Amino acid sequence: MVDQNMEQKIFLNKNRVILKFINILMKNGKKVKAEFLFRKSLKLIFLETRKDPFIIFFKALQNILSIVTVRFIRKRGRSYQIPFPLNNKQQLSLAIKWLIQDSRKLSKQKSSFFKILSAQLILASQNKGDIIKHKNEFYNSARQSRPFAHFRWR
Question: Can you give the pTM of this predicted structure?
Answer without folding.
Answer: 0.85
